Amino acid sequence: MIPTPLLILIYFFGPVLILWLCQKYTLVNKIGSVILAYLFGIILGNIGVLPEGAAALQDTMSGATVAVALPLLLFSLDVRAWLHTAGKAIISMLGATVLVIMVAGVGSWIVQDGVANAWQFGGMAIGLYTGGTPNLAAIKTALDVDSTQYIMMHTYDAVNGIIYLIFVMSIGQRVFNKFLPKFKSSLISDPMGDGDENIHSYVGIFVPKIVKGLLGGLGISILILAVSVGTSELIPEEYSTAAVMLLITTLGIASSFVKPIRNIEKTFQFGMYFILAFSLIVGSMANLEQLVNINWSMMFFVNFIVFGTMLLHAVFCKLMKIDTDTFLITSVSAVCSPPFVPVVAKALNNKEVILSGLTTGIIGYAIGNYLGVAFAYIFRAILF
Q: How far apart are CA 40 and CA 279, in angstroms?
């Protein structure tokens, strides 16, 4: 077993190895640093070396890394440019929400013979795929879902989520660019930056002047996290996760208007480093042993909702003339929740869509519980 202190070091410094491999080997770089982080994490989590109590550590560290990363990612963003595409992101999100309700209803009806209380799973799916895991847990309690069935759906969602993310981050953009309009930048210059400010570049990050600036940026990010968590204590626990995400995003955006903060070099790359650590941690949380005895009806149900909604959402975006990157980032914010938005933005090589993904994801957090519980009872009344 790996001692807990060593595991923490692996989580924090594993991305260094990943970035080095991507820089040194062209083939590895084509796979992508984020996908590598997930794969390394899955291997680490399933070879029997994690210490006892690792789950609690993983949960804490995954939340902390993404919370620290978000402000760093937002500091350098051009909010004024984002406002030009915000409307399309909201329309895309509304379309995805309506479609997931429809698909969840149809899916519940299809699997009702193979899944007990399928109407409950329909409600949980709506909460999960408009908001995220916190909504899933809340709806489980609200509908009094059996714990074994809840864990089963959570596990299958995790497996399908990894498959979904790998598709989106590897070939998704190329596939949907053949069907949807390509994203048009609102920036005059290259949205990813030039030279050593490219999203994939960490060259020069250890120059003393840059390190000093990044430490200042990290301090501001931690302060934003502390203020957000402290403020969320004043809000009912049911909404605390959404509140923390909203506050972190708001304060990060506000900081981007402060010129000295916006001009700190390589804050985006520094934030992406924490996202790589987050990806490594999340990957190690996947327990492949739970897939030995698969409930194929439930597996079909989760696949049907994730990929069925995605295809219908793409058709909707085609009709509404919404571009590929906006479609993908709003899809990810719904299916996988806001913390995964920066991960996919990096794979898309487009940081302009981060705010769109975070904004729609936070809206999903807020409405997911209401929609999930309400439509679960509607499904039960109409379909069963």
A: 9
Please, are residues 117 and 149 in contact by the beta-carbon 8 Å criterion? yes
The pair of three-digit structure tokens given for residue 95, joined into one six-digit string: 């379309």
| Domains held by the chain: number | 1
CATH at 69: 1.20.1530
**Angstrom distance (rounded) from CA 100 to CA 336:** 13
Q: Tokens 């609690």, residue? A: 56
Instruction: Give the predicted TM-score (pTM) of the model.
Output: 0.72
Residue 46, helix vs strand vs coil: coil
Give the range of the structural domain holding residue 100, as residue numbers without chain letter: 4-383
Lowest mean pLDDT among 26-35, 94-103, 105-114, 225-234: 26-35
Look over the chain and give the mean of its residue pLDDT values, rounded to a whole number: 85
337: left (phi over 0), alpha (psi -120 to 50) or beta: left
| pLDDT surpassing 70 at residue 291 | no
Rounded Cα distance between 229 and 321, Å, is: 38
Query: Is 77 a residue whose pLDDT tops 80?
Result: no
Supply the DSSP symbol for 53: T
Instruction: Quickly count helices (H) and strands (E) in the chain.
Output: 18, 0
